[in-house]
Specification:
The chain is α/β, with parallel strands linked by helices and 171 residues long. Helices cover 29% and strands 16% of the residues. The longest helix has 15 residues, at 69-83.
Length: 171
């Protein structure tokens, strides 16, 4: 179900054209190509997009613990709950199943089974590996977007917000 949905909403992040699957590669009419590994589209090869200047230790720890999903999830849910207000699950509760919801910068976290997880790393549970500054989705396609604990790591958060806004459906 999620793979079929992705196929209908993904576009080339370079030119915005539709993508066709050819073996394990997605190709647009302008011949931009992107690999598909184990069913996961990869729109970035160099996946180190975060601004880690000043937070190298924290970033390194997060990458280390993300190699161990159960430990990371435990730490995230126990320690992270102290720092966050309304949880994304509560914020999305009013959206019915079948809504197109993007979790941009998802890491390992699964909010709901129908949420599309996007990250610049191919972590467990990531559906699309992509650059937050060039999301590979059609404009005005998503009903909602979540981006939790991501903005502070971006070199240009305003550009990423504009890109997320582009893929959201108008009110």
């Amino acid at each position: 179900m999620k793979r079929e949905l992705l196929q209908s909403i993904l576009v080339c992040p370079v030119c915005g054209d539709s993508l066709q699957k050819n073996d394990e590669i997605l190709v647009c009419a302008h011949h931009h190509s992107f690999s598909v590994t184990h069913g996961i589209p990869r729109f970035v090869e160099n996946s180190h997009q975060a601004n880690t200047e000043g937070d190298d230790l924290i970033h390194g720890l997060k990458l280390f613990f993300k190699k161990y999903p159960k430990v990371f999830s435990f730490l995230y849910y126990v320690i992270g709950a102290w720092f966050l207000g309304k949880s994304p699950q509560k914020a999305l509760a009013h959206l019915h199943e079948g809504s197109i919801i993007l979790n941009v910068g998802s890491g390992l976290k699964v909010l709901r089974p129908d949420v599309i997880n996007i990250d610049f790393q191919a972590f467990e549970n990531v559906d699309v590996v992509a650059d937050i500054y060039h999301l590979p989705f059609r404009s005005s396609v998503a009903d909602a977007s979540v981006s939790e604990c991501v903005g502070e790591h971006l070199r240009d958060p305003e550009v990423s917000l504009a890109e997320i806004y582009r893929v959201l459906k108008p009110d």
